[in-house]
């Protein structure tokens, strides 16, 4: 391990990522399939930010869907092709992807949508979704909720320390979160140490803080109808979603879940409502 701010220990080492964030019951994939089935989505699914491919592969093999995954990490995609084969995997940016294919649904899980840091980023991503979705296609996303941080400092009272062991080495992370109000970003600084004698590693990342009404505006402007926007249950809520459980709740807790449908393309030069 080297001292750097350019890489990411977990995404550069996919097996380590899965050890740190296990999902043995594939809750994220099962929640996604339940959502797709509830809204009668067709079989072709694009997983944006597919990571190690474990959700994409579950949807492909267990749910019988035709899945394609994209990610910006070559290490993640190489791991996915080897350990979670079946879906087609592509190295691509969520703001610029052009796959020459049409999908019935696009899934964007675990706050991947929030890597659109600017209004221009989000607009570009939604335009790419619109270009790749069949009429009536779904956009399904789950992410951190910007509204949660209005007066709530629960996640900001850090730093937080987490330790876990992998292949004989104990890794410890010290994580600090803070809000960049001007940029509307939740920023993270994480210091990794390991008991194998390697130097510590510092990493920085950020997520856009989107508020529910703001998200509705961007989606409507891009030609989507918001079918549901709720805070639970989901694969990363407490308590987590369970089989057959319908969405409920407000939009005030830490997680936000979105289901939107692509409206018919406008005609005669009309602007999407």
Automatic annotation (TrEMBL):
PANTHER family: METHYLTRANSFERASE (PTHR43464), UBIQUINONE BIOSYNTHESIS O-METHYLTRANSFERASE, MITOCHONDRIAL (PTHR43464:SF19). This is Methyltransferase domain-containing protein. Residues 45-137 form the Methyltransferase domain. The keyword S-adenosyl-L-methionine applies. The keyword Metal-binding does not apply. Keywords: Methyltransferase, S-adenosyl-L-methionine, Transferase. It comes from the Bacteria. InterPro entries: Methyltransf_25, SAM-dependent_MTases_sf. Pfam families: Methyltransf_25. Residues 230-253 are annotated as: Disordered.
């Amino acid at each position: 391990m080297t001292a750097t701010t350019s890489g990411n220990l977990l995404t550069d080492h996919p097996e380590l990522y899965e050890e740190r964030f296990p999902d043995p019951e594939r809750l994220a994939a099962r929640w996604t399939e339940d959502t797709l089935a509830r809204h009668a989505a067709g079989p072709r699914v694009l997983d944006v930010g597919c990571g190690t491919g474990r959700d994409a592969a579950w949807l492909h093999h267990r749910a019988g869907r035709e899945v394609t995954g994209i990610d910006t990490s070559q290490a993640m995609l190489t791991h996915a092709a080897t350990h979670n084969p079946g879906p087609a995997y592509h190295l691509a940016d969520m703001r610029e992807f052009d796959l020459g294919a049409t999908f019935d649904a696009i899934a964007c899980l675990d706050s991947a949508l929030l890597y659109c840091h600017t209004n221009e980023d989000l607009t570009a991503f939604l335009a790419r979704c619109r270009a790749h979705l069949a009429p009536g296609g779904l956009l399904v996303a789950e992410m951190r909720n910007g509204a949660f941080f209005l007066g709530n400092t629960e996640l900001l009272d850090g730093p937080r320390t987490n330790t876990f062991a992998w292949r004989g080495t104990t890794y410890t992370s010290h994580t600090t979160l803070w809000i960049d109000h001007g940029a509307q970003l939740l920023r993270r600084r994480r210091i990794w140490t390991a008991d194998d004698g390697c130097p510590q590693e510092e990493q920085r990342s950020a997520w856009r803080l989107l508020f529910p009404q703001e998200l509705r505006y961007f989606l409507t402007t891009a030609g989507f109808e918001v079918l549901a926007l709720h805070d639970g249950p989901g694969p990363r809520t407490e308590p987590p979603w369970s089989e057959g459980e319908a969405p409920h709740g407000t939009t005030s807790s830490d997680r936000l879940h979105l289901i939107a449908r692509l409206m018919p393309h406008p005609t005669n030069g009309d602007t999407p409502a």
